[in-house]
Amino acid sequence: MSNPTALAFGYPDNKVAETDHWLVLVRPKQPTFGSLVLVYKDRAEAFSDLSPAAFSDLKLAIDGIERLLRQVVAYEKINYLMLMMVDRDVHFHVIPRYSGERVHAGRAFVDAGWPAAPALGATVDLDAAAAADLAALLAKTWSAA
């Protein structure tokens, strides 16, 4: 994998799932529990550069993400943010949104921005091992669905 954005978000250790054109990765800085990054596998810096096949495959990836996060996080809303300022390859930050908190591995994850825009600066920062553990848990749930 030569996609620097995927590598920046911990690929392959943080991989939850993949489709023909997309990688689903755990986002190490978690503004909410279950935050992911959906990364286009090829090199592209503009959304319009994606092939029709990649757009079609995006539906499969999003269906899987929403099924997974509905089951694991019980989100109330979900935000897909395409920022691409630092990591330039096409990718989305997937932020499940909820009131209250979610607890995982002894840590509380509060949606500090609820019910407005996500508070991307208020995160639970997972170290490499914790991010990989969460990715493994989510990958098992993805496969079982």
TrEMBL record:
Keyword Phosphoprotein: no
Keyword Ubl conjugation found: no
Pfam families on file: HIT (PF01230)
UniProt keyword list: Hydrolase
Domain (HIT): residue spans on this chain: 1-104
Record protein name field: HIT family hydrolase
Gene Ontology MF term list: hydrolase activity
Signal peptide: none
InterPro entries, A to Z: HIT-like, HIT-like_sf
